[in-house]
Amino acid sequence: MSDPTVPNAPATPEPHAGVVHRQPDAVVEQLKTAAADDTVVSLGGALPAEELFPTAELERAMAETMRADPAGALQYGWPEGSDGLRAHVVRWMEARGITVGEDEVLVTHGAQQALHLLGRLLVAEGDAVAVETPTYSAALQSFDLRSPRFLAVPRTAAGIDLPALERAFAEGARVLYLVASGHNPTGGVLTRAEREAVLDLAERHDAWVLDDDAYGAIVFDGAEPPLRSFGRHLDRVVHLGSFSKVLAPGLRVGWLAGPKDIVHEATLLKEAQDLETASLSQRVLAAWLDANSLDAHVERCLPVYRARRDAVVAALAAEMPEGVSWEEPRGGFSVLVRLPAGTDPERVLSRAIEEGVLVEPAGPYFASRAAEPALRLSYSNVPERRIAVGVRRLGRALHATLG
Ligand SMILES: Cc1ncc(COP(=O)(O)O)c(C=O)c1O
Fold this sequence. Notes:
The chain is α/β, with parallel strands linked by helices. About 40% of the residues lie in helices and about 15% in strands. The strands form three sheets. Strands 2-9-8-7-6-3-4-5 form an eight-stranded mixed sheet, with helices on both faces. Strands 10-11-14-13 form a four-stranded antiparallel sheet, with helices on one face. Strands 1-12 form a two-stranded parallel ribbon. Strand 10 (about 325) and strand 11 form a beta hairpin. Helix 2 (about 55-70) packs across helix 10 (about 280-290), helix 5 (about 110-120) packs parallel to helix 6 (about 135-145) and helix 7 runs parallel beside helix 8. The mean pLDDT is about 95. Bound molecules: pyridoxal-5'-phosphate. Pyridoxal-5'-phosphate binds near residues 110, 112, 214, 244 and 249.
């Protein structure tokens, strides 16, 4: 409101985050309360399995970090990230076919910050952005800040709708956000042919491809190569990586890698945002990577996640009522459960919590507000027997809600 006593006085700004793709506050409250209740089985929040955190090794890495160079660990660093950690990131990507120099890598506070930086750099107010639908809701939130026109490209665990992608480019999208592997929330993994086809289309329309590979290593039937490894369209493909899913999200370390110009601009923006990624986290992570093999750690994790994926799929087959559908995830931490048209997922959540299971209404994962009714179930941090109990409870809730 402006001051009525002063003509043409500027309005005092009101805070407004501009974030659209989020759960309503009431749902967040329900989720928080239920998550704190041990009797409720939580199939919400795609958390890595906490018993897989290499706590003893990380403790040693922390001690080593503080012993070797305490001043370095506690001092400010450079916005692009520590040299030691960037060298590890370069090697990890090289093993996946991506060749970049350290100056083509920016260490970020998780892949989430990389998404935010790229949204700011590449999307102007009202631009068209091509996104899979459904897709990772917090990526949509990063783009929300520019009030873009989302052009939806249907995605299921079985694949991506390439004609819809072509239409999105034809309608003016010059940025595509993609979770090719371990897609959140469906668990899909695009085939090599689909990746080639995406690159063909992006190349033809000179569009940026933001390849969010946070789950790239969490795949159950063999990993597919990330898009930058194809060696094509390299001036427009940005790779996003993360240590959250494969090691520990509490470190809050991820990265982006791509053409030098975008890495440089992202570095400037990051400096304006938070100066640098926490030195201590970077040093501890680099010390852990000096002493341990991340590949070997991932190999230990995969059978656990695969068994949980198998458990959730088996339980769904046993417990879901008619009209409810899902596809087997091939990677990632979650499965999308589609509900009959007209079902209110928030009503299902309330009923599910009464039955003792927490699930996530999937509305925020759909770019268009005309979301299909669906739930996201995350199995990653729940032992198989608890998964069976949780899905049985969800089955009861759905039988009651659907009648
Ligand atoms: C697809 C996807 N990308 C990025 C992120 C963010 O990860 P980070 O912890 O690295 O910020 C997530 C987290 O759930 C995710 O699911």
